[in-house]
Amino acid sequence: MFSFSRSETGTNAWPVLLLAGGFEIAYALAVGGSQGFTVLTWSLVAIVFFLLTLWALSVALRTIDVGIGYAVWAGIGAVGAAVLGPVFFDESLTLVRSLWLGVIIAGVVWLKLADRTETARDVQEGANRARAVQGAGL
């Protein structure tokens, strides 16, 4: 479908991961609407969003570590489904549940910030290696 070069994927990986998280939310809500895959239209919507979320996740994981990417993707899906479940279905969102969802959101943000720090460090190390090679006359 789409082709990303290594450099493009590095800059687009996080937005694509967020998109995958959005597809995961839609998938979870469609599964709920399908009532155990007994309602055809919601079942078909669930299948489409399932395929979209797997595609987007696989694109993002080309450059984001699997453990980090999967945790962020799952966190987005879990929080999104928990927050939107009461909007679309007969579910409740209590204060205690909201608190723990906040913990998940904080964890996702922290993972993203940690990845940014590692990326900056990797860029600096690469620049240092390039200077060392130039200085050695190679």
TrEMBL record:
Coiled coil residues, start to end: none
GO CC, alphabetical: plasma membrane
Main location: membrane
Subcellular location: Cell membrane
A Pfam family recorded for this sequence: Multi_Drug_Res
Keywords on record: Cell membrane, Membrane, Transmembrane, Transmembrane helix, Transport
GO MF term list: transmembrane transporter activity
TM helices/strands, residue ranges: 12-33, 39-61, 68-89, 95-114
Topology versus the membrane: Multi-pass membrane protein
Family recorded in the similarity comment: Belongs to the drug/metabolite transporter (DMT) superfamily. Small multidrug resistance (SMR) (TC 2.A.7.1) family.
Name of the protein in question: QacE family quaternary ammonium compound efflux SMR transporter
